[in-house]
Amino acid sequence: MREELENIRTEAMTKIKKSINSDNLEEIRVKYLGKKGVLTGILRGMGSLSPEERPAAGKLANDVREEIENAIENAKKSIKEKEREQRLAFETIDVTMPGKANPIGGVHPLTKVLDEIQEIFLGMGFSVAEGPEVELDYYNFEALNIPKNHPARDEQDTFYIKDGVVLRTQTSPVQIREMEKSKPPIRIIAPGRVYRSDAVDATHSPMFTQIEGLVVDEGITMSDLKGTLDTFAKRFFGESTKTKFRPHHFPFTEPSAEVDVSCFACGGKGCRICKNSGWIEILGCGMVHPDVLRRGKIDPEKYSGFAFGMGLERLAMIKYGIDDIRLFYENDLRFLKQF
Amino acid sequence: MIVPYKWLLDYVNIDKSITEVGDELTLSGSKVEEIIENGKEISKVVTGKILSIEKHPNADRLTICKVDIKDEIIQIVTAATNIRVNDIVPVALHGSTLAGGVKIKKGKLRGVESNGMFCSEVELGIADEDSVHGIMILKEGTPIGEDIKEVLGLNGGVIDFEITSNRADCFSVYGIAREAAATFKTKLKPVNTAYSSNDEDINDYLKVEVKDDLCRRYAAKMVKNVVVKDSPEWMQQRLKEAGIRPINNIVDITNYVMVELGQPMHAYNYKFIEGSKIIVRKAEDNEKFKTLDGEERTLNSSMLVIADDKKPVAVAGVMGGENSEIKNDTNTIIFECANFDGTSIRLTSKKLGLRTDASSKFEKDIDPNLVEMAMNRACNLIEELGAGEIVGGTVDVYKNPLMPHKLTVSASWVNKFLGTDIKPEMMKEMLESLEIKTNLIGDELNLVVPTFRQDVKIKEDVAEEIARIYGYNNIPTRKIVGETVEGTVKKDQKLKKIVRETMVSSGFYECTTYSFVSPKVYDKICIPDSDAIRNAVKISNPLGEDFSIMRTTAIPSMMEVMATNYSRGINEVKLFEIAKVFIPRENDELPEETDKLVIGMYGGANFYNIKGVVENLMNALGIERCLFAKESENPIFHPGRTAKIIIRNKEAGVLGEVHPNVTDNYDIEERVYIAEIDLNSVFKASNLNKKYKSLPKYPSVSRDIAMLVKDEVTAAEIEDIIRANGKDILESIKLFDVYKGKQVPEGMKSIAYSITYRAEGRTLKDEEVNKVHERIVKALEEKLGAKLREC
Asked: In B59-152, where does DSSP find H-type helix?
């Protein structure tokens, strides 16, 4: 019996060593250790041994069994490792091939710039207001000190709907509408479309977008106007941006100014973008004219305010280096995808 | 307003470069558009006298000239044909530079040495190519060996100012000089207006009658024994620099005064003033009149004319007539120096399509008190040029003389308004430098504002004057003080942002299109003639039919954008726009302006793609229930592939495949999908208040159900029945298979759902689920004739 066990051990160990996959090992396990396996058979035959022989033979049989079990276990482990390695090697892919995702779209560059501007002003305590695009002559002109036959009506060639109704030529009418319905302190920006009878070319569009700003409160000064717009310019164009305020004339502000910023592209040295001047004109502004305050039912003796207006397309063109305003309204996907 | 720099220096002493002057004037309120320095590049070009011209031995077209340039005599070979011996010409010497940076060097032409080149006006940058023929021949007696820049006055340059409409006083050299004097803190020099006249009286020769108040002032002077000839070189040069073509001494004087002082003038040939009478009146309707430019004009009764006893002799303030033009044989002239209502001049000039230097000045409403100075200056120039004999006396009809106005402003208010700390004495100085007489009493600035500053009327105007002379850039900057205000955006604005974000994350690009469209777009999208949507706000003066109505739907704009992209070979497009539409209202002058969301896509898309996008969006906006109902009547869309979007029992939009009739009209050979959603309705139903529901503690039970139904049966019908019979244990239903074909009879389809049941607070028992499930199956069988299939 001892001999038999020794033979089984040698045979099994040899087979285990030779096995190459987990199926082989399973076969070996069944053959030697299974219910009908060789070793089980021998153990069953133990009854025929004398009581003296039994303990030694039993021990040996258990040793052999344990040995085979361990060997199978170890072999299984190493085969699994090998198999995993093989699988990993087999699964190698070309990581330089393009990825797959649900492609996302994008907002229009004008929206993008507008969002950026709104963020800046929201941070300074401005709220966003809106007004109609088809507007009464009164709000667009009369209330803003531009009576009938005023030369400014020629300058901004107006689209008329009928007598007394126009397509607004500026977002400034929102100033009056906002003052009429709210009391100071007022701090708003009003983005929106405006219309002027300009033929379409690379720098003109009969429809474009303006952003109006209005602040009315007690004790508002020209210093506040300068501080607000200077902050805006620095946030929008970069902290090193300088601003230059030049006197100008608008019927609805007094004093009035135009604002230039130092060219963000060349830092003021002069380049193509700033036409070698080092400066780029970005907006018009001024202290709200007392007549305008009065029409907004606000007492100019008690309150003062400032207003400003800027062209969104112009700012976006400067920011992205776009040289033709028509691209915004043509919506070629290859253009839209760039922002 | 073009100001020749040297002319400006007649009236102010400034020791700065033209660029520095331009920069500082811009900052004090006279914006420089452009500085042109014609002679800037020119160097080493002198005047020379041609001593001899000989044929070139080796070239027929060339000649060899000896030229005296004072210090030496040089030899120049030229191809010029308009030169003669003794001509004085500009000579570019060896090493010289011409306009445009062209360098000239000595060399040999066909073997003969040439030490330079003769110049034309083009090479000196003072004339255009096509207006010049040959070498510039200078006036006889021009000194030789002189720098051509000195001789031609090319060392000055001109500054082009953008003058705003409120500053009529700045449309002149003298007006700018006044600004410069204030800016550079120097004195403005007086204009020379001295002259002597004979002892006759103009009133014996001329009567003036002003019949209309639109003429605020009419003054006239008479000059006898006029010698009409070219004006002197210096005057011609200055006029040319200012952009005005010299004509003859008389006309040139009127133009010179206009440029210098801003007062337009006119000269009439006295001989043709019938009845020795000038009448300022309105024109007759359809009155014909030939202006100086030779055009016959038809006038009407809104226009002011200058007439004699019989006929108009000028359109007031715009242009004189051929009938009284100054010619070489003119002997006696009448100088007119008048003032007209600006608006009237502007409208007349607009109606006639005739904008002149004079009208563009008058339309700004110039100061009527400028008349005297201008008239005297003209007479002074007549004398200086020896152009005639000035008749004594003046005709001056000036019914309501304009007086300087008074204004009191507190200095401390100015500082409070500007946020500055300027001393009242300094304010006084600044105002006086602008010729505003200022008397400072304590804190009060008592001003007498001259009549040429009609724009200074209220205290804010005074603050502006002080601010700009002080320098806007010297005003301190500060953050707004006062009550802290919180920046807010309205609900609509927030929701629009969500719409954009959702569309972008679904792979769509935002586009933006014009709000005005052509009325023909309705034909292109096959809208019947009677449809109310064609009722749009019309623009009465559009840029053309293509931009003539305010859109009532944004679908055509989206189709247009897709067509553009399609025609450019882009084969997959996903776009959206938040577009305003304008719906006319009966009880309001202004239309209703509402926002539509338009979604458009083609290329690898189908109906369910666009529907999925819309469903996603509704989800993101917190719309609890959004229904889709079959729509087969909308002419824009495919009758079998279109749905109405219904929110809160109201139609909120439409989506579907665009009808091939429409895509044909846009030349798109692809299936196109569009949705148009009324954002107003959607936003009203939007609820973004989220509330946490505890996660289910008990397991759910799923049952699948597959059935055969007739083709016409819709998923919505099936789902309604399932929901209605699901009791409170129905959690969700999910369509997972639709099949037609093998094993499914004609006209039928197989449709399969997975239904999930769950009860709150307990584990569902099989019997309970079976009961409900069977009820559902029974209802489907009874109501839709569904036949159950094995799953």
From this structure: 148-152
pTM over 0.90? The answer is no
Sign of the dihedral defined by the CA atoms of residues B163, B168, B173, B177, in that order: negative
**Which has the minimum average pLDDT: A254-258, B465-469, B741-745?**
B741-745
CB contact, 8 Å: B590 with chain A? yes
CA of B14 vs chain A CAs: smallest distance (Å)? 21
Please give the share of chain B, as a percent, with pLDDT higher than 90.
Answer: 81
**C-alpha of A225 from chain center:** 31
pLDDT of A149 over the 80 cut: no
The whole-angstrom separation of Cα B591 and Cα B539 is: 13
Does the structure show a pLDDT above 70 at B13? Answer: yes
| Residues of chain B neighbouring A160 (CB-CB closer than 8 A) | 539-541
Which of B26, B416, B458 is facing A221, going by the closest CB pair?
B416
- Residue B511 at interface with chain A, using a CB cutoff of 8 Å: yes
CB contact under 8 A, B487 and A123: yes
What is the tens place of the pLDDT at every residue in B209-236? Answer: 999 999 999 999 999 999 999 999 899 9
Beta-carbon contacts of A201 under 8 Å, excluding residues fewer than 6 positions away, are: A326
- Cβ contact (<8 Å) for A125 and B487? yes
- Residues on chain B touching A125 (C-beta within 8 angstroms): 480, 484-487
Are the CB atoms for A279 and A244 separated by under 8 Å? yes
| C-alpha to C-alpha distance for B279 and B772, rounded to whole angstroms | 104
pLDDT tens string B748-775: 999 999 999 999 888 999 999 999 999 9
Residue B35 has a CB neighbour count (10 Å cut-off) of 17
Rounded to the nearest angstrom, the minimum Cα separation between A112 and chain B is 10
CB-CB under 8 Å, B482 with A217: yes
The H or E element spanning position B425 is helix B424-433
* Tokens encoding B302: 């809104």
Q: Could you give the CA distance from residue A305 to residue A287 in angstroms, rounded to a whole number?
A: 6
Cα separation, B393 vs B208, in Å, equals: 13
Chain B positions touching A162 (Cβ under 8 A) are: 540
Stretch 74-133 of chain A: residues touching chain B, C-beta under 8 Å: 102-108, 110-111, 118, 121-128, 132-133
Q: What fold characterizes domain A109-336?
A: BirA Bifunctional Protein; domain 2 (3.30.930)
CA dist A188 and A178 (Å) reads: 8
Task: Give the torsion through C-alpha atoms of B324, B327, B330, B334, to 10 deg.
Answer: 40
- Extract long-range pairs of A30-34: CB within 8 Å, 24+ residues apart: A32/A8, A32/A68, A33/A65, A33/A68, A33/A69, A33/A72
Pairing of strands B43-56, B88-97: antiparallel
